Amino acid sequence: MPDPRFFHRAGPQSLAQLAEIAGATLSGSINPQTQIADVATLQDATSADLVYLSDKKLSDALPKIKAGACLVSQALAQGVPATCAALVCADPRAAFAKVIGVFYPTTTSSWSTEHHIAPSAVIDPSAIVAAGAVVAENAKIGARTKLGPNAVVGPGVAIGDDCIVGANVTITCSLIGHRVIIHPGVQIGQDGFGYTASPTGPVKVPQIGRVIIHDDVEIGANCTIDRGMLGDTIIGRACKIDNLVQIAHNVVMGQACIVVSQAGIAGSCIIGDGAMIGPQVGLIDHITIGAGAQIAGQSGLMRDVAAGEAVMGYPAKPIRQFWREVAALARLTKRG
Amino acid sequence: MPDPRFFHRAGPQSLAQLAEIAGATLSGSINPQTQIADVATLQDATSADLVYLSDKKLSDALPKIKAGACLVSQALAQGVPATCAALVCADPRAAFAKVIGVFYPTTTSSWSTEHHIAPSAVIDPSAIVAAGAVVAENAKIGARTKLGPNAVVGPGVAIGDDCIVGANVTITCSLIGHRVIIHPGVQIGQDGFGYTASPTGPVKVPQIGRVIIHDDVEIGANCTIDRGMLGDTIIGRACKIDNLVQIAHNVVMGQACIVVSQAGIAGSCIIGDGAMIGPQVGLIDHITIGAGAQIAGQSGLMRDVAAGEAVMGYPAKPIRQFWREVAALARLTKRG
Amino acid sequence: MPDPRFFHRAGPQSLAQLAEIAGATLSGSINPQTQIADVATLQDATSADLVYLSDKKLSDALPKIKAGACLVSQALAQGVPATCAALVCADPRAAFAKVIGVFYPTTTSSWSTEHHIAPSAVIDPSAIVAAGAVVAENAKIGARTKLGPNAVVGPGVAIGDDCIVGANVTITCSLIGHRVIIHPGVQIGQDGFGYTASPTGPVKVPQIGRVIIHDDVEIGANCTIDRGMLGDTIIGRACKIDNLVQIAHNVVMGQACIVVSQAGIAGSCIIGDGAMIGPQVGLIDHITIGAGAQIAGQSGLMRDVAAGEAVMGYPAKPIRQFWREVAALARLTKRG
User: Fold this and answer.
1) Could B191 and C183 be called an inter-chain contact, meaning their C-beta atoms sit closer than 8 Å?
2) Residue C148 touches partner B, C-beta closer than 8 Å
3) Would you call B329 and C326 a contact, using CB atoms and an 8 Å cutoff?
4) Domain-ending residue, one of C88, C103, C118
5) Between A28 and B267, where is the model more confident?
6) In CATH, what number is assigned to the domain containing residue A267?
7) Same domain? C72 vs C197
């Protein structure tokens, strides 16, 4: 469930109310007055939660659903088990976006107009908060951690011990470990880039996840790390991220990965331990990079990469094959 | 004419003075003491304005010129109509840069050394201005709009109702609509990247346009949007822009476009309604992307793209052709 | 030697102590109690300094070494001259990183928790420091220079006359010339991205160099320029750098270079006078771009480029050859 430190949940909704909000038809034998307390991911849902199933996901997840209700397309509706109310609609993702907005009507940080350091903030006496820095309500700053001038730490954010947070950094909706170095101008925890189509243009999907940064991570200047849509964006222990890197919502990065400057990792990618992602590399969303994989600079990844594999190119291919193609193309101009 | 909220015009100049400043020869029968009040674009110029015509532009624009004076090369000078004084010079663009500097001697924001919120700023009582935020003289902040901590709103900037401006954002020389979301670290309205060559290196062309952002736009963290050189940089209604995107001076974007992270749109590009520009895409300057066109990630665009067209690659080509070439190149290494 | 304005050196170390810290074996006839005062680059070292030689560097540098001590691999140890103590170890670079940490135990800026403007800062009376800007201890701000709101100038930083520093900029460990324009959101002088491998993941190499920016440079919004590891990152006179550009540690850029938006220049590259680097170009580390070379947008450079050469592509090649290959590949799909 969304972290109450960052997102304030409104009261429960009945299945009937949810059907109306979602423009969905309630199917099955469950009482329409049954209360649903929250939204959740498929993995985390309990009987009090609503989930959604888009057509892209495999229908074999359906029988295992633990959720109390599910927004689902007509095509998949009959696979929903009897313990789960099916809310049948044309566009489950768009409907889910509307429902999130009802459970979590405000998703933006509330800032004090008066205090640079909120009275409710818990700042270790050994921490240093430079002039101009802002620490919002209920934020926690660990021992010996240093916040640079004009850094901004949002409501409920927790930062561990011995961290260095540079000037002009903004951190919201995030939990940060120990010995993390965040260079100036980094933006962490803002909304992910999620929309659904509509006749009047793209409609925003509320982003109610977090960013979790584990111990010993270093993040280069002016990077951007978006929070998860519903789950979390996770940066594993000892990852080292260079300047101007983009990490999108729900990316899960293992331990000790290296991401060189200006690389971009799209939504929900999974990066294995020790992977090395070169400069200006781009990954499309929902792909998996295996442990220890090496991605050469400027490569464009549109498929999974196996553990230990070294790839290069646009689209990325095994590095030897890339150079073979470069040579073949050069020869072609000599022949022809 | 440049917006007086952002740029303070010095007094008028005679044609004779302008010729001297520009290192130009005044040609035609117009009185050299005729006063010119301002600089302007070809489209907007009146008889009180000076324009310039570089050799790149088509000479068939010349007979329609409404301007009172025109910096022009020898080759094009005789096409200038009798109502317009021709100021003939070797490099009209460089000369125009000098003249702009005379009409608009200071183009940088003037900041208060004392006030975070200038007494002349007009802030709706329902707006929230967080601690550390700066609102400069004559800026306007609309109803229910929220400025995050340490956000900076420059002199004369107007922001509409129900906007969210993140922490550490800077906005200068811009007009922002309603319900606009600007994520942390975004920089809007700084000088475009314009130079002319000179023997001592590149010489800056003053940038005296604006940024106009229409309603319902969302702009991702650490994006940069430069103001126009003379006209405006325009982001149309409901455009959604991801993190770390670069939008150069005088770009004109239609409605409901999507621009994914780390894409870069060079100067004076025109983007049609509903176009989708993928991550890390690059557009060279002065090209047009038609409505609904789709540009795949990392593509490099060096020519116009028709409405509805889907392109990919470097240089970009129709998406099927891209994949055909990928396959052909792979086959080549097997044969050879 | 590292600049004492930015880095506080701890006391000298004996050769014996250094050998223990580095896990190295002291070889040769020099007294183990000999004191070493500092670390240095090969070029700058004197007899009081320690240097390191990685296997990549040519062994013909060895006889000319002026340093008093050298971390070196077994393979190269016997080439070290008798005037220089050889500290033999398996990984000289990793050992050097440890030793830097002993000579320079703290490498981060110390910020005041109270003062926006430190009492020891020297600010010319004609300079303008906007509300919210921070000027740390011993920083110097020249005549008529303007600091935008919430800009941050670190300890010991010197900024010349007639500069414009935008809002939300951070500058540390840097010396800035005259008439330099730094647009909003730029981050200058933070740690370079340097690590050595270890069994528990990448280990940080302390970065104790500076950034030197010469006169008349312009730097676009949200750029990042890292300081040198040991020497300096240098931007030559009149260079013009567009938005969102990444310049890594120890890059040395000549005069009047142009770097267009979102380009990335990796560590220790050398860029000749007047070179033009297009948008989204990437350079791998340690390459040299000759004077006046032109690099087309999105190119990926993996080798040196000669003066005046024009290249394009991934990998970059002469521009005509690039287009020849584009044409050949297109023809291939028609034949096949």
Assistant:
1) yes
2) yes
3) no
4) C103
5) B267
6) 2.160.10.10
7) no
Which range, A52-66, B153-167, C19-33, has the best average confidence (pLDDT)?
B153-167
Band (pLDDT 50/70/90 cuts) for residue B51 is: very high
At residue A325, the 3 state secondary structure works out as helix
pLDDT digits (tens, 9 = 90+) for C94-138: 999 999 999 998 756 689 999 999 999 999 999 999 999 999 999
User: What pLDDT, on the 0 to 100 scale, is given for residue A336?
Assistant: 45
Contacts with A, B 87-146, CB within 8 Å: 128-132, 146
A73 and A195 within one domain: no
From the list C94, C132, C101, C90, the residue with the least C-alpha distance to C115 is C132
The CATH number covering residue B54 comes to 3.40.1390.10
- Report how many domains make up chain B: 2
Asked, for residue C188, whether it belongs to a domain, the answer is yes
- Last residue within a domain, chosen from C46, C77, C103: C103
Query: Is the CB of residue C218 less than 8 Å away from at least one CB of chain B?
Result: yes
Tell me the CA end-to-end span of chain B in Å, nearest whole number.
62
Angle at B246 between CA A260 and CA B170, to 5 degrees: 100
Q: Catalytic residue numbers of A?
A: 249
Task: Compare all CA atoms of chain C with the CA of A279 and give the residue at the minimum distance.
Answer: C282
**CA distances, C212 to each of A82, C158, C252 (Å):** 69, 10, 9
Which is nearest to B226 in space by CA: B245, B202, B201?
B245
Residue with tokens 């700066």: B134
Give me the average pLDDT of each 10-residue run along chain A (336 residues): 90 95 92 96 92 74 88 90 93 93 80 94 97 97 97 98 98 98 98 89 92 98 97 97 98 98 98 98 98 98 98 97 96 77
Chain C residues in contact with A297 (beta carbon < 8 A): 282, 284, 300
Contact C184 B170 (CB under 8 A): yes
Q: Which of C237, C274, C329 sits opposite B325 (nearest CB)?
A: C329
> Of B209, B279, B195, which is closest to residue B251 (Cα–Cα)?
B209
Domain that holds residue B276: 173-321
Long-range CB contacts (within 8 A, 24+) of B264-267: B264/C244, B264/C261, B264/C262, B264/C279, B264/C280, B266/C260, B266/C261, B266/C279, B267/B192, B267/B193, B267/B194, B267/B229
pTM beyond 0.90: the answer is yes
Q: Is residue A213 part of a domain?
A: yes
In a domain? residue C39: yes
What average pLDDT does this structure show over B276-297?
98
Mutate to test the interface with C, among A180, A217, A280 (most CBs of C within 10 A): A280
> What is the torsional sign of CA C101, C103, C105, C109?
negative
Question: Which pLDDT does position A107 carry in this prediction?
Answer: 57
Q: Is the pLDDT of residue B73 over 50?
A: yes
Structural element, H or E, at residue A76? helix A74-77
Q: Does the structure show a pLDDT above 80 at C58?
A: no
DSSP per-residue codes, A43-75: TT--TTEEEE--TTS-GGGGGG---SEEEE-HH
Per-residue confidence (pLDDT) for residue A334, from 0 to 100: 83
Do residues B195 and B306 both lie within one domain? yes
Q: Please check whether residues C89 and C178 belong to one and the same domain.
A: no
What's the pLDDT score for residue A156? Answer: 96
CB contact under 8 Å between C134 and A149, yes or no, is: yes
User: Which of B170, B204, B332 is the closest to C167 by Cβ?
Assistant: B170
Comparing CA positions, the residue from C265, C165, C260 lying closest to residue B249 is: C260
ipTM: 0.95
Task: Check residue A319 and report its DSSP letter.
Answer: H
Catalytic residue among C8, C214, C249, C286: C249
* CA dihedral angle for residue C266, residue C268, residue C272, residue C273, rounded to 10 degrees: 90
Per the CB < 8 A criterion, the answer to whether A249 and A230 are in contact is no
Q: What is the mean pLDDT of residues C141-155?
A: 97
Q: Do B221 and A185 touch (CB under 8 A)?
A: no
Closest by CA position to C169, among listed C222, C225, C238: C222
Residue A280 domain-assigned (yes or no): yes
